[in-house]
């Protein structure tokens, strides 16, 4: 490859990544949107808190169950076709969700959205492993999370304002149309391999795809590799607790416990989203530059545990409102620990299975994100009429604290990779 071709390829990778991150913003929007439109959904469909939590969790169940298939598709069909089809499906699901005449149809719309967006992040990680250098992986993963979280920001106060002006139905239908447009851009721009930039060199393309295609044996190596699983449980506990607060119950907590309006209450979970955005970049840079995965994870993880302990135990479950913005920002900031689990998963497994290995760990995060909010919803439904709001939420958030404790313990079981692939060391 000559210098001109190399420069063109190097520049084009940023265009590919940019379009995929645009799709990832939509992923985060849907991930965090349920909490803000909680009252609208309950009023429109006359549902309980448990049903609302299950409606929100449908996205995460679909996302979780699709992770291994998403990894296989990323490693075989390729990122271009997989992301295009997924984003298109998410657009259709969002339109259906906004149109839904009954709660059953809204569940179907939410299911389609979850299935569609489930493939995006795994495909981004696959693109990063192919188009970017290994020493850039964690930094780029963090930057990807930072920009993707802009969708999470849109799903807080801006979404509350949009719903107030345009109604929740019209808002979600508009997001669906935008998703379909992004799907078209994905198909036009994304290329799976640098060799695809040289269509005349078909042998180079086929050779690279053949080298990158996983077999059933390598897939089983991911599942049976004990070093894959600590990251799975870390991501489940940390991200599940984060979503339970920021994406589902945080707005209700601020309204019920502190008496804030919905638009003001939405600002507080948004602080956690901002924290996650900043933390995602910083922990990736720290890890790549220090050539360590485990040490940053231990420091960030212990601090994340401390934020949950403060929320649950400070002032009987009602910390002074003056500390909540910095507390929630810190919660999101230190939750970014999970960003490094993707790099570890890739580095303790066969490089040919970058899609499957990262998807396996990703499954854990969305298992936690589906279960914890639903468990809290069941508890709130059962005890909501007998306990004051402060005690009710303190007990409900205890589920999150326990999950974070288990996840923090799993950090110490993670294999230090030194920011390089050490899979062959296990032979």
Written account of the structure:
This protein is an all-alpha fold and 427 residues long. Helices cover 78% and strands 0% of the residues. It is built from 20 helices and no strands. The relative contact order is 0.15. The mean pLDDT is 87.
What descriptors fit this protein?
single chain; 427 residues; mainly alpha; Growth Hormone, Chain: A; 20 helices; 0% strand
The CATH architecture designation is Up-down Bundle
Helix count?
20
Question: What is the general shape?
Answer: globular
Order of helices and strands: HHHHHHHHHHHHHHHHHHHH
Oligomer: single chain
What proportion strand?
A: under 5%
Name the CATH class.
Mainly Alpha
Average the pLDDT over all residues and give the rounded result.
Answer: 87
Distance between the termini: 34 Å
Give a quick precis of the structure:
The chain is an all-alpha fold. The protein has 20 helices and no strands.
List the SSEs and their pairings:
Blueprint: H1 3-32, H2 38-45, H3 49-65, H4 67-76, H5 79-99, H6 103-117, H7 120-131, H8 137-154, H9 157-166, H10 168-189, H11 202-212, H12 216-224, H13 229-258, H14 262-265, H15 267-290, H16 294-313, H17 324-335, H18 339-347, H19 354-383, H20 389-411
Helix pairs in contact: 1-7, 1-8, 1-10, 3-6, 3-19, 4-7, 4-19, 5-6, 5-7, 5-10, 7-8, 7-19, 8-15, 8-18, 9-10, 13-15, 13-18, 13-19, 13-20, 15-17, 16-17, 16-20, 18-19, 19-20
């Amino acid at each position: 490859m000559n210098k001109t071709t190399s420069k063109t390829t190097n520049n084009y990778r940023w265009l590919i990544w940019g379009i995929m991150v645009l799709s990832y913003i939509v992923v985060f929007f849907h991930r965090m949107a349920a909490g803000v439109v909680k009252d609208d959904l309950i009023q429109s469909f006359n549902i309980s808190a448990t049903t609302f939590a299950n409606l929100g969790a449908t996205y995460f169940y679909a996302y979780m169950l699709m992770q291994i298939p998403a990894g296989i598709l990323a490693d075989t069909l390729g990122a271009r076709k997989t992301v295009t089809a997924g984003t298109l499906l998410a657009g259709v699901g969002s339109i259906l969700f906004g149109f839904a005449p009954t709660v059953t149809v809204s569940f179907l719309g939410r299911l389609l959205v979850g299935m569609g967006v489930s493939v995006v992040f795994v495909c981004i990680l696959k693109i990063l492993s192919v188009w970017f250098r290994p020493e850039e992986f964690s930094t780029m993963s963090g930057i990807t999370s930072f920009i993707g979280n802009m969708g999470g920001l849109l799903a807080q106060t801006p979404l509350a304002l949009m719903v107030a002006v345009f109604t929740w139905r019209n808002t979600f239908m508009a997001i669906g149309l935008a998703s379909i447009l992004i799907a078209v851009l994905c198909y036009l721009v994304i290329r799976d391999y640098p060799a695809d930039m040289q269509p005349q060199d078909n042998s180079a393309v086929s050779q690279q795809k053949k080298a990158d295609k996983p077999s059933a044996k390598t897939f089983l190596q991911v599942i049976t590799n004990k070093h894959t699983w600590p990251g799975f449980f870390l991501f489940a506990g940390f991200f599940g607790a984060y979503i339970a607060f920021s994406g589902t119950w945080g707005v209700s907590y601020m309204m019920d416990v502190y008496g804030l309006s919905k638009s003001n209450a939405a600002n507080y979970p948004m602080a956690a989203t901002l924290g996650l955005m900043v933390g995602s970049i910083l922990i990736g840079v720290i890890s790549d530059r220090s050539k360590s995965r485990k040490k940053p994870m231990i420091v960030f993880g212990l601090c994340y545990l401390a934020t949950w302990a403060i929320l649950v135990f400070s002032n009987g479950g009602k910390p002074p409102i003056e500390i909540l913005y910095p507390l929630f920002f810190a919660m999101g900031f230190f939750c970014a620990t999970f960003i490094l689990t993707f790099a570890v998963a890739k580095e303790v497994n066969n490089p040919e299975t970058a899609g499957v290995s990262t998807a396996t760990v990703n499954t854990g995060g969305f298992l936690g994100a589906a279960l914890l909010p639903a468990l809290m919803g069941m508890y709130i439904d059962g005890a909501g009429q007998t306990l004051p709001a402060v005690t009710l939420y303190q007990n409900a958030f205890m589920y999150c604290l326990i999950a974070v404790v288990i996840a923090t313990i799993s950090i110490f079981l993670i294999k230090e990779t030194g920011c390089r692939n050490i899979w062959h060391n296990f032979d």
